[in-house]
Fold this protein.
Amino acid sequence: KLIKESQPDVAVIAIGGMPIMPEISGVTKSNVVTAQDVLFGKVTVGQNVVVIGGGMVGCETAYYLAERGSKVTIIEIQKRMATDMGLMVRRRLMDGLRANQV
């Protein structure tokens, strides 16, 4: 529901370090890609991007895209994001996400 409401050009699946495609409606569409494909330059994304997963991979991917001009929204089930990162690195990444209005 949140993904549809955001009307993204691309939805980036960023769940864990290894690419995992969750069993959700629409995951096989051409505008659903993995974080790894984004970070390795295998795909291009539009201006409006939703990143599914707010762990380290998701937050780093969101930051990468926001720094390159995309409007990024992160969807995360947990209350806090990037809890799988060290405190100092996490703090800097969160500051970067806020600065880019993610």
